[in-house]
Specification:
Layout lengths: L3 H8 L17 E4 L2 E4 L5 E2 L2 E2 L11 H23 L5 E12 L7 H16 L6 E7 L8 E9 L3
Parallel strand pairs: 5-6
Antiparallel strand pairs: 1-2, 2-7, 3-4, 5-7
Helix pairs in contact: 2-3
């Protein structure tokens, strides 16, 4: 039976995806003590990127914000793959978001709000976190957004 976090996802009309397989030599997530660190999660859906390009050029900020939400869902799937259950999350500690940006685009924080807002909606106060939102020239596979998450677990 799904726990309360997955029930909240369902209530929001969201489904936890399968863990995105690694694109290179790394693990989607690793646990060290009470912490789980995810690798950077791209906005992969069914094994592919729905959108490619730079935010502020080929990709609108609103599209990118939705893609950041997808990245956060993928990160939660990666956390579950090592933690066993999402209900073990004591809190989200840190989110780092990367935005492949057109040279004049400066709205990276608003894009990464997609991930932050999703984590808050799903986890409530446990989803409040520290964060960085960084503009970069290019991301793997020409993805517009990449998000990594660090969570603290209870019962580790």
């Amino acid at each position: 039976m799904a726990g309360t976090v997955e029930a909240k996802l369902a209530e929001l009309g969201l489904t936890l995806p399968d863990v995105v397989p690694p694109l290179a030599s790394y693990q989607p997530a690793v646990q060290s003590g009470v912490y789980v660190y995810t690798s950077g999660q791209l906005p992969m859906v069914d094994g592919k990127l729905a959108v490619t390009g730079k935010v502020g050029a080929e990709v609108t900020p609103d599209e990118a914000k939705e893609l950041a939400k997808t990245c956060a869902l993928n990160a939660l799937a990666a956390v579950k793959s090592v933690a066993g259950e999402l209900d073990r999350i004591a809190r989200v500690v840190k989110v780092v978001g990367f935005v492949a940006s057109a040279s004049d685009f400066t709205g990276q924080p608003a894009v990464i709000n997609g991930a932050s807002e999703l984590l808050g909606a799903v986890l409530g106060d446990k989803g409040v976190h520290a964060r960085s939102a960084v503009g970069v020239a290019v991301l793997p596979l020409d993805a517009p957004v990449e998000v990594e998450v660090q969570v603290e677990l209870v019962g580790a």
